[in-house]
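Morning!

As promised:
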Amino acid sequence: MNILVCLKQILDPEIPARDFRVDPARREAERGSANLVTNIFCENALETALQLRERTGSAKITVLSYGQPSAEDALRKALAMKADDAALIVVNDGDANPDPLTTARVLAAAIRKLGTFDLIVVGREAGDWGAGQTGGLIAEELGMPCVSFVDRIESEGGQLRLKRQTDTGWEVLEAEPPIVVTVTNDEHNLPRIPKVRDVMMSYRQPLTKWTLDDLGIEANEARAGNTYYQVAELFIPQKETRCEFVTGDTLDQKVESFAKRIVEVTSAL
Amino acid sequence: MSDVVICLFASAGFDKAAQGLAGAGRRLADELGGRLRAVVIGAGADTLALEFSRLCDTVIIADQAELAEYQPETCLNALVRLCSELSPRAVLLAGDTYSQEIAPRLAYRLGGSAVGDGVEVRVEGEALRVSRQVYGGKAQAVIELKRRPAVVWLRARSFAPAPPRAEAGEVTRAALDIQADMRTRVVERKREEQGEARLEEARVIVSGGRGIGGPEPFETELQPLADLLGAQMAASRAACDAGWVPPTWQVGQTGKKVTPDLYLAIAITGASQHMAGISEAKAISAINTDPDAPIFKHCRFGIVEDYRKVVPLLREKLAALQK
């Protein structure tokens, strides 16, 4: 089985809100002192694919990213986690935040150039812009079906069994490859930590690097941001709530007034 | 070309999300000077269509055998056909799993643009603009959709419902010739027991985080507290990822977006991705040992103590107050 996993490198979403700044003019977050990390859902996606490979015994996993040159680190980490091959499409200068359709078109063009895949796995959304569209739009570009919010993939006699989360529980879908799957987090697909030796080895492995020209994508076609959607404003909302901490000399008194506040709020509203 | 279409799955029923969706649709249709039209998909659409006929100008039922149960590809094909015929300016969906799954693909096939998790939709000149949280709730963005139709899935429960209309809208049944697309098919469907109400509909929520320390206290400490308050149980992503509670309990940017009257956060630090799921709660309260925990910045009231000491006592006090 041939599996492709898309990875996005993003600003570490764990940075505290007080250290987070945006540049309203460029309509982007400021890098500041934050690390760049692989989007967690992309790592859940890779982990899900790795587990599928372990169960089937024979599958090849290629990882692909569209991003800044620094996204090479995300791909190297994926190689250290034992992905087989890696390819990076470097964004054009000034195209730092391509819109979902642009991203999907570029990734789809790269996927076609890389070969034929039975399974394309992407994270459900990214921790920065959180658009949640890449998987669905890649499926449309490639004419494949798509199943979202999957947390486990099994292969059975040429068919795939996909377990996915819904609002009220879960579903199992059977699917014919080729298919695009978006992955969400679950207790079973927490990304593995690569061994130090594998991290070092990953930097000696070959890694394909392409520009948009290599993919035959015209710069203005890739700038579909002007035709799909555009970020008109980006700001940090100012919301001040003053917390009233309950007081009392003893724990009993504090909890008593806490209980009273709860009853007030739940019966008043 | 100035109409608004709202798409609903009959399986969800006439819940707060469905009502919010109709409210958002009505206001947008009024702004555009167009009609509000509803498309209801799936078995049991008749009942829901009746409710929506009081709120919408027209309602279309699509409940033939192939569409009775949600199947991603087949439902998408049906919606593409129905929306193409209606050629609306905007298509609105609720933020449920199924809507999120198909909305970008629906936009693609209609030649439109999609954006999700909208908390506000407004017309600005010729353009449609949608406000949404980004960066895990740390920032807010306004997205301008360039193509038509605009396909938007909403945080529907945050929108006020639509006022009922004097005259009921016309209800029709779509004559669709849709083939089942067998490339994917749902073969098993499981609904978790989640008390009587769904988390998104809950008026009071008791939620636990990493600081709870394991699965047992959810059962022995938090659940009895929730029962006393008539509350639903929820959890942070950390608690769900640890496997302490089912993933359906997860509240946050990528979990459920809830809108209770009171959200009681127990041993939850309040990472911004968690707060993004509760920003529309009327009141937030917390029990946490750390007075500097970010959660308190969003709280109306709170208590700085170990939950293990507070919760048993709190149950006693609440039981006494309720007598």
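The domain at 199-322 of chain B is CATH 3.40.50.1220 (Rossmann fold).

Hope this helps with the figure draft.
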